[in-house]
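Retry 2 of 3 after timeout on previous attempt. Resubmitting structure tokens to design endpoint.
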């Protein structure tokens, strides 16, 4: 039997992806996925276009959003699934996060200029063409202008946390991120847990803490993880009574090695995981747990 696969993590032109929501959904349908989630950073703007395209293409659509929470030493991203995208609280908070980007991004441009690069905020904002301007847009312009040869090099040498052009931005706490998603009727999942940059014991402790705050699941099946790491996070999730999810984190040309649905070629996120997520969301809405 052919396994039905899904992709629960992707970005569009509404944040730092290069495919429009409709194009992305069509790509998922041509990769024979049974369902696709759009999880743009700090915005739900692409969801209505994505849903309409999914209805046409006959693929199930899962509304999502990705929120970057305050965290050290690495990064903590919380995915919100099945959120009500008209929720007022959610939209107000996302608007605040977009304003924080507007405050941060000219400072990144200034750092790059100090480092001798002809990179202006206006050019980067133009390239992004939306309100969610992010570091991948800077990286892309740096490649285009010949300052680096790849997006990866732009991050490694300049844009990554700790690198010379990195600028902090205001974020929500993990607790507020999870509460916001829950209040909008959604399911909260810790994205790519390895990016927290914690050792095994601290990872476990941190996930336990997040569970106490209401976390519902862990993204164990992720493009950049090998099979044993995927198993390890999936087992950890099961042990802790959390959902297991997975996705490619497709960004189109902004992460050129990652394909939708297939990741680096070996990604397989079974449809059954989405069924468990939907069941969990339905239980929470009925107030069962
Ligand atoms: P920002 O929203 O501006 O903080 O940028 C976050 C985006 O940058 C996410 O899509 C990340 O996947 C991407 N990103 C973060 N670190 C790296 C890296 N080292 N290489 C490539 N992309 C990265
Ligand atoms: Zn991104
Ligand atoms: Fe992320
Ligand atoms: Fe992402």
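Retry 2 succeeded. Sequence:
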């Amino acid at each position: 039997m052919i396994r039905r696969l899904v992709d629960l993590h992707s970005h569009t032109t509404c944040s730092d992806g290069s495919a429009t929501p409709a194009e992305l959904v069509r790509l998922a349908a041509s990769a024979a996925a049974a369902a696709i989630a759009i999880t743009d950073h700090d915005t739900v703007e692409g969801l209505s276009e994505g849903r309409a395209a999914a209805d046409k293409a006959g693929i199930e659509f899962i509304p999502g959003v990705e929120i970057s929470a305050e965290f050290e030493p690495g990064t903590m991203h919380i995915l919100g699934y099945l959120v009500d995208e008209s929720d007022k609280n959610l939209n107000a908070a996302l608007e605040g996060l977009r304003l924080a980007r507007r405050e941060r991004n000219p400072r990144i441009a200034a750092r790059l200029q100090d480092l001798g690069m002809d990179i202006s905020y206006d050019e980067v904002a133009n390239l992004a063409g939306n309100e969610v301007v992010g570091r991948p847009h800077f990286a892309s312009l740096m490649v285009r202008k010949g300052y680096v040869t790849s997006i990866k090099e732009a991050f490694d040498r300049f844009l990554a946390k700790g690198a010379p052009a990195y600028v902090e931005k205001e974020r929500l706490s993990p607790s507020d991120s999870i509460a916001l998603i829950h209040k909008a009727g959604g399911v909260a999942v810790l994205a790519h847990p390895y990016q927290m940059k914690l050792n095994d014991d601290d990872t476990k402790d941190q996930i336990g803490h997040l569970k106490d705050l209401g976390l519902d699941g862990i993204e164990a099946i992720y493009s950049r993880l090998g099979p044993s790491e995927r198993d390890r996070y999936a087992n950890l999730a099961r042990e802790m009574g959390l959902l297991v999810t997975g996705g490619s984190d497709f960004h189109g040309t902004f992460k050129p090695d990652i394909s939708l649905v297939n990741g680096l070629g070996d990604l397989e996120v079974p449809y059954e995981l989405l069924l468990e997520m939907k069941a969990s969301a339905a239980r929470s809405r009925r107030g069962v747990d």
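Attempt log closed. Residues 76 and 163 are 18 Å apart (CA to CA).
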